[in-house]
């Protein structure tokens, strides 16, 4: 058995709560690694927290600066220069299909730190990430380590509902974030992929606190139930609408943007049932995409929803935002609005989708003049690559039925 396989087996056989101890033992035995630590990103994606250590301020490091922040942000191994040193310190991103979990830090004898070894250790850090995701079903250790402060009960419910915060496939990359991270109420997002499709939902439940979280939870699970039953997009919206109306009789509603991407062609089906909005960045130009606005889910009995169709092209970037973004006001009462959103989308065009939401939310905080928002804010960014063999390099006549005109 080679050493890579030995470490992989040790991680897979480790108890859910004890992955770091297993990694320390296996990496020390097979790679002569020492001083092994795992830093876990907090819910706000602002800080990195040592796993298994008390959250003293001196132990928490920035997710954006320093050596750990550099590896976390670039998603590449980072080894600070240590000229003449006998020990090299490696910072390895811990990531699962594009979803950034944290950074694995370890020290190696300098003569052992070859490109081949670094590549092996980077793959081991990815395996560790996968094991953490699986282990979270059975232990709270990793979820507790992510907390820079206490979550509200509503926020706990919303974060447990999410599929992740990023996803990468050859056809696309996407990233999303909710704010305020530790007190979110009704905003949410969800996605599911298959061999041929990506289904994406952006949700905004009315109300505040537990009521909003319960409402969104019902809507998301109703949509999942319909999707997993094999229903088309139109019927998914109808079934979720009926579930909400049956529970609340029209007193509460949920705004949803529901999309289904055909991965081979870039064709997209959309049901616009409320306030979340979509923007498109194409060839350097940012524009809101006009959609046919329909009733939010749960308002009336037997609402019928219609599907719109348009097409994304390789190189397109789509941005989805909730009303907690475009309705933000400055200290003098000026609304954030379309111009600021277009500027933010253009200014972040060189960032990967996993970092775009955090960057725009940071700009939003500066605009309103305080770090915390009075309303939920949700941003999701999707970069479309397409399939190299799909031949979707041009815009077919009549394919885009959703035009670049804001509501």
TrEMBL record:
Lineage of the species this protein comes from: Bacteria, Bacillati, Actinomycetota, Actinomycetes, Kitasatosporales
Gene3D superfamilies per record: PPM-type phosphatase domain
SUPFAM superfamilies from the UniProt entry: PP2C-like (SSF81606)
Organism this protein belongs to: Streptomyces calidiresistens
This protein's UniProt keywords: Hydrolase
GO MF, any single term: phosphatase activity
Domain PPM-type phosphatase positions: 169-384
Region (Disordered): 384-407
Protein name: SpoIIE family protein phosphatase
Domain of life of the organism encoding this protein: Bacteria
């Amino acid at each position: 058995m080679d050493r890579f396989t030995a470490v992989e087996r040790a991680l897979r056989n480790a108890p859910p709560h004890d992955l770091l101890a297993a990694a320390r033992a296996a990496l020390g035995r097979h790679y002569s690694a020492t001083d092994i630590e795992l830093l876990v990103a907090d819910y706000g994606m602002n800080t990195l927290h040592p796993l298994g250590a008390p959250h003293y301020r001196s132990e928490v490091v920035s997710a954006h600066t320093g050596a750990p922040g550099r590896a976390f942000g670039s998603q590449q191994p980072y080894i600070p220069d240590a000229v003449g040193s006998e020990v090299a310190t490696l910072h390895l991103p811990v990531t699962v299909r594009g979803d950034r979990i944290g950074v694995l830090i370890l020290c190696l004898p300098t003569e052992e730190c070859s490109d081949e070894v670094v590549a092996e250790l980077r793959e081991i850090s990815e395996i560790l990430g996968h094991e953490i995701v699986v282990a979270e079903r059975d232990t709270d250790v990793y979820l507790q380590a992510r907390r820079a402060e206490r979550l509200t009960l509503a926020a706990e419910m919303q974060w447990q509902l999410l599929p992740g915060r990023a996803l990468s496939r050859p056809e696309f990359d996407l990233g999303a974030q909710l704010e305020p991270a530790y007190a979110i109420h009704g905003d949410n997002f969800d996605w599911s992929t298959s061999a041929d499709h990506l289904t994406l939902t952006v949700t905004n439940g009315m109300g505040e606190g537990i009521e909003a979280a319960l409402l969104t939870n019902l809507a998301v699970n109703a949509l999942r139930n319909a999707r997993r039953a094999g229903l088309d997009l139109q019927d998914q919206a109808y079934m979720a609408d009926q579930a909400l109306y049956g529970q609340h009789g029209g007193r509460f509603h949920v705004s949803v943007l529901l999309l289904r991407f055909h991965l081979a062609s870039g064709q997209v089906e959309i049901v616009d049932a409320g306030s979340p909005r979509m923007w498109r960045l194409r060839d350097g130009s940012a524009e809101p995409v006009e959609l046919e606005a329909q009733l939010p889910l749960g308002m009336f009995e037997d609402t019928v929803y219609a599907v719109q169709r348009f097409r994304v092209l390789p190189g397109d970037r789509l941005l989805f935002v909730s009303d907690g973004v475009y309705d933000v006001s400055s200290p003098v009462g000026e609304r954030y609005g379309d111009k600021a959103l277009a500027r933010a989308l253009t200014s972040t065009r060189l960032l990967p989708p996993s970092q775009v939401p955090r960057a725009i939310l940071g700009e939003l905080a500066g605009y309103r003049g305080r770090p915390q928002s009075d309303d939920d804010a949700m941003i999701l960014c999707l970069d479309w690559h397409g399939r190299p063999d799909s031949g979707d390099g041009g815009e077919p006549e009549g394919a885009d039925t959703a035009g670049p005109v804001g509501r």
